[in-house]
Protein backbone atom coordinates (compact mmCIF):
# COMPACT_ATOMS: atom_id res chain seq x y z
CA UNK A 1 0.00 0.00 0.00
CA UNK A 2 1.06 3.60 -0.43
CA UNK A 3 3.04 5.25 2.32
CA UNK A 4 2.03 8.82 1.43
CA UNK A 5 -1.06 10.21 -0.32
CA UNK A 6 1.17 11.52 -3.14
CA UNK A 7 2.19 7.95 -3.92
CA UNK A 8 -1.34 7.35 -5.16
CA UNK A 9 -1.17 10.08 -7.81
CA UNK A 10 -0.65 9.23 -11.45
CA UNK A 11 2.64 10.34 -13.03
CA UNK A 12 2.63 13.99 -14.13
CA UNK A 13 4.09 13.14 -17.55
CA UNK A 14 1.21 10.77 -18.26
CA UNK A 15 -1.39 13.31 -17.15
CA UNK A 16 0.23 16.07 -19.24
CA UNK A 17 0.27 13.84 -22.33
CA UNK A 18 -3.40 12.89 -21.89
CA UNK A 19 -4.38 16.54 -21.43
CA UNK A 20 -2.47 17.58 -24.58
CA UNK A 21 -4.12 14.81 -26.60
CA UNK A 22 -7.59 15.82 -25.36
CA UNK A 23 -7.30 19.54 -26.07
CA UNK A 24 -6.86 21.36 -29.38
CA UNK A 25 -3.48 22.84 -30.32
CA UNK A 26 -2.71 26.20 -28.79
CA UNK A 27 -4.60 25.60 -25.55
CA UNK A 28 -2.42 26.00 -22.48
CA UNK A 29 -3.13 24.42 -19.12
CA UNK A 30 -1.71 25.91 -15.93
CA UNK A 31 0.37 23.87 -13.54
CA UNK A 32 -2.38 24.23 -10.96
CA UNK A 33 -5.01 22.88 -13.36
CA UNK A 34 -2.78 19.91 -14.31
CA UNK A 35 -2.34 19.16 -10.62
CA UNK A 36 -6.12 19.27 -10.04
CA UNK A 37 -6.75 17.01 -13.05
CA UNK A 38 -4.05 14.62 -11.80
CA UNK A 39 -5.64 14.40 -8.36
CA UNK A 40 -9.12 13.96 -9.84
CA UNK A 41 -7.86 11.19 -12.13
CA UNK A 42 -6.16 9.47 -9.21
CA UNK A 43 -9.33 9.61 -7.12
CA UNK A 44 -11.33 8.22 -10.06
CA UNK A 45 -8.89 5.32 -10.52
CA UNK A 46 -8.97 4.52 -6.80
CA UNK A 47 -12.78 4.61 -6.74
CA UNK A 48 -13.08 2.46 -9.88
CA UNK A 49 -10.57 0.00 -8.43
CA UNK A 50 -12.48 -0.20 -5.17
CA UNK A 51 -15.77 -0.85 -6.98
CA UNK A 52 -14.15 -3.48 -9.24
CA UNK A 53 -12.61 -5.13 -6.18
CA UNK A 54 -16.08 -5.43 -4.63
CA UNK A 55 -17.24 -7.39 -7.70
CA UNK A 56 -14.19 -9.67 -7.48
CA UNK A 57 -14.77 -10.25 -3.76
CA UNK A 58 -18.43 -11.14 -4.40
CA UNK A 59 -17.17 -13.72 -6.89
CA UNK A 60 -14.69 -14.94 -4.24
CA UNK A 61 -11.68 -13.95 -6.33
CA UNK A 62 -8.58 -11.99 -5.37
CA UNK A 63 -7.75 -10.95 -8.93
CA UNK A 64 -9.60 -8.15 -10.67
CA UNK A 65 -10.47 -8.80 -14.29
CA UNK A 66 -11.85 -6.73 -17.14
CA UNK A 67 -15.39 -7.85 -16.34
CA UNK A 68 -15.07 -6.45 -12.83
CA UNK A 69 -13.94 -3.10 -14.22
CA UNK A 70 -16.82 -3.04 -16.72
CA UNK A 71 -19.32 -3.80 -13.95
CA UNK A 72 -17.75 -1.09 -11.78
CA UNK A 73 -18.07 1.47 -14.59
CA UNK A 74 -21.73 0.60 -14.91
CA UNK A 75 -22.28 0.80 -11.15
CA UNK A 76 -20.54 4.19 -11.08
CA UNK A 77 -22.95 5.33 -13.82
CA UNK A 78 -20.26 5.67 -16.50
CA UNK A 79 -22.12 3.51 -19.02
CA UNK A 80 -21.22 5.84 -21.88
CA UNK A 81 -17.56 4.84 -21.45
CA UNK A 82 -18.26 1.10 -21.63
CA UNK A 83 -18.15 0.85 -25.44
CA UNK A 84 -14.86 2.77 -25.82
CA UNK A 85 -13.46 0.73 -22.95
CA UNK A 86 -14.46 -2.54 -24.64
CA UNK A 87 -12.88 -1.36 -27.90
CA UNK A 88 -9.67 -0.38 -26.12
CA UNK A 89 -9.61 -3.77 -24.39
CA UNK A 90 -9.97 -5.57 -27.73
CA UNK A 91 -7.10 -3.54 -29.21
CA UNK A 92 -5.00 -4.39 -26.16
CA UNK A 93 -5.80 -8.12 -26.45
CA UNK A 94 -4.90 -8.14 -30.15
CA UNK A 95 -1.63 -6.36 -29.38
CA UNK A 96 -0.81 -8.87 -26.65
CA UNK A 97 -1.65 -11.76 -28.96
CA UNK A 98 0.62 -10.28 -31.62
CA UNK A 99 3.44 -9.87 -29.10
CA UNK A 100 2.98 -13.44 -27.95
CA UNK A 101 3.10 -14.73 -31.54
CA UNK A 102 6.25 -12.70 -32.28
CA UNK A 103 7.86 -13.98 -29.08
CA UNK A 104 6.93 -17.57 -29.94
CA UNK A 105 8.35 -17.17 -33.46
CA UNK A 106 11.61 -15.73 -32.06
CA UNK A 107 11.87 -18.69 -29.69
CA UNK A 108 11.35 -21.17 -32.54
CA UNK A 109 13.91 -19.38 -34.71
CA UNK A 110 16.42 -19.46 -31.86
CA UNK A 111 15.83 -23.20 -31.36
CA UNK A 112 16.32 -23.82 -35.10
CA UNK A 113 19.55 -21.83 -35.05
CA UNK A 114 20.81 -23.76 -32.03
CA UNK A 115 19.87 -27.07 -33.66
CA UNK A 116 21.65 -26.01 -36.83
CA UNK A 117 24.75 -24.98 -34.88
CA UNK A 118 24.67 -28.24 -32.93
CA UNK A 119 24.42 -30.19 -36.20
CA UNK A 120 27.37 -28.26 -37.63
CA UNK A 121 29.42 -28.83 -34.47
CA UNK A 122 28.60 -32.53 -34.54
CA UNK A 123 29.54 -32.75 -38.23
CA UNK A 124 32.80 -30.89 -37.57
CA UNK A 125 33.65 -33.23 -34.68
CA UNK A 126 32.88 -36.28 -36.78
CA UNK A 127 35.00 -34.93 -39.65
CA UNK A 128 37.88 -34.23 -37.28
CA UNK A 129 37.60 -37.73 -35.82
CA UNK A 130 37.68 -39.23 -39.34
CA UNK A 131 40.75 -37.18 -40.20
CA UNK A 132 42.47 -38.28 -36.99
CA UNK A 133 41.65 -41.92 -37.72
CA UNK A 134 42.97 -41.57 -41.27
CA UNK A 135 46.14 -39.96 -39.92
CA UNK A 136 46.59 -42.81 -37.44
CA UNK A 137 46.13 -45.34 -40.24
CA UNK A 138 48.74 -43.56 -42.38
CA UNK A 139 51.12 -43.49 -39.44
CA UNK A 140 50.64 -47.23 -38.92
CA UNK A 141 51.24 -47.91 -42.66
CA UNK A 142 54.39 -45.77 -42.90
CA UNK A 143 56.56 -47.96 -40.62
CA UNK A 144 55.58 -50.97 -42.76
CA UNK A 145 56.72 -49.14 -45.86
CA UNK A 146 60.04 -48.29 -44.17
CA UNK A 147 60.53 -51.94 -43.16
CA UNK A 148 59.90 -53.03 -46.75
CA UNK A 149 62.53 -50.58 -48.01
CA UNK A 150 64.99 -51.76 -45.37
CA UNK A 151 64.54 -55.37 -46.46
CA UNK A 152 65.29 -54.50 -50.13
Approximate helicity band:
over 70%
* Total helical elements: 4
Shape estimate: elongated
Q: In what range is the share of β-strand residues?
A: under 5%
- Could you give the count of β-strands? 0
> Secondary-structure element sequence?
HHHH
Computed structural class:
mainly alpha
Distance between the termini: 99 Å
- Mean pLDDT across residues: 85
The major pleated sheet works out as: none
Cα gyration radius (Å): 35 Å
Uncertain runs are none
Short description:
Its main location: nucleus. Residues 9-73 form the Transcription factor CBF/NF-Y/archaeal histone domain. The chain is an all-alpha fold.
Can you offer a commentary on this structure?
The chain is mostly helical and 152 residues long. Helix 1 crosses helix 2 (31-58), helix 2 crosses helix 3 (66-75) and helix 3 runs antiparallel to helix 4 (82-151). It is built from four helices and no strands. Residues 9-73 form the Transcription factor CBF/NF-Y/archaeal histone domain.
Topology of helices and strands:
Elements: H1 12-22, H2 31-58, H3 66-75, H4 82-151
Helix pairs in contact: 1-2, 2-3, 3-4
What characteristics describe this protein?
78% helix; mainly alpha
Amino acid sequence: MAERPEDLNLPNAVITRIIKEALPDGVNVSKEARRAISQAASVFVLYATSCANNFAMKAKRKTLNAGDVMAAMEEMEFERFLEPLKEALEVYKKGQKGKKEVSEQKRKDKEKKQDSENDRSREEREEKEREEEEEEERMEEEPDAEEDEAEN
